Every structure is written in C-alpha cells, then in structure tokens.
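Q: Hi! Curious about what Protein xpsM looks like structurally. Here's the sequence.
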Amino acid sequence: MRRRRPMPRSVKRDRWIALGLLLLVIGVAYLVLVHPWFTQPMIAVQDDLQALRERELRVRVQLQQAPEVSKRLRQARQTLESRPGFLPETSAELASAGLVQRLERAVVEASPGNRSCAISNRSPLQPESKNRFTRVAVQVRLRCGTPELASVLYSLENGTPRLFVDNLNVMAQRYQLSPNESGNGLDIAFELAGYLRPGASAAPLNNEAAPAAPNAAEASNAP
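A: Let's find out. The predicted structure is below.
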C-alpha cells in the first residue's frame, strides 16, 4: 500500500492565498453590487416603516384624547363667556364711550338725581398698547359722599366686562351739590380703565373733536 506523499508547503500557501482572494472578491462584489442596490434600500424601508408606526401611534393617541380636549375647550369658552374680561367694543373710541356710560350708570345707581354724588369731569385718555393688550382709560373726577363713593367703586370693579380703577386719589372737601346740602364730602380723582380684545382697533382718540361735557349739576350751578 502506497503512502500519500505530503503536500508541499508552497501548494498549501497557494490554496490559502486563493481562498483569501476569493473572499476578497466576494466582499468587493457585495459592497459594489448587493449593498447599495439591495441592503441600503431595505434598511431605508425599515426606517420608514418604523417612522410610520410611531406616527400612527401618535395619531391614535391624539384621536383618543380629542373628545376630552374638545370638552375642555368648550368649558373654557363657556367660562370666558360667563366672565368676559375684555371690553366688547371694537375700537378705542367706542370703548371710551362705553366706559363713560358705565360710570354714569354707577353714579346714578349710587345717587339717583345726583343728590349726593356727581361727575365733575371725565376725559378719555389715549389708548396704551405697550403690553400685549390695549388699555383704554377715562380720567374721572367725582364729588361724592363716602357711602356713595364705595357704591360707585364696587359697581365699577365688580361688573362685567372687568374694569379697573387706577391712580385713585381721595380728598376731603366742602362742596354743595344742591343749595339744601351742607357740603361735606369727598373730591375723588381716578382712572377708569379696561382692555380691548386682541384685534380691536387701537387708533388714537380725537379728544378735540369730542370734548368731555360738564355734569348737569355743574351746569345748573353755573352763573
């Protein structure tokens, strides 16, 4: 029986070199032919599918929350409508006139016939838009007794829409609203202010075209 002759080392080395070259060729072929045309598109498709799944999940969550969000939005709108904070007028000029009307109503309710409280002056101020909302104000001067003043201020600050009494200045003074009164009372000055809704016209007022009219009590006492 013949023995196999051992393979020469050079032949083994050549085989390993050939195997390495074959693997190298296969790797290059994969990188050139398979990876860019098959593997990369498949990876991109998987990423797109994952993004779509996440988007679908977010949409489902939003749809599930939609009834609750709509309910809360309706509640918020009802709350705002029941407690309006902005003046209903669409311009600063109309809002100033509305403030004067609110003031006159409050004074008449506190002192019917202006027997113990009267408006001595009311002058619209220019609107201010320094902040997000436009402030409309009227400079007011009253001559009232103490109970009447408290009633006027309470009526102005607790009505709707919300009004603000700023820069209040009260001085004790003797005056007469009618010849039959002793003339003990208060001289009051303040700014009656409110805020326009966003989007309302905040054009400057033309105070010269419509000066403040004197109160009827002053007109009756004029010479």
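A: A fun detail: The first strand starts at residue 117 and ends at 124.
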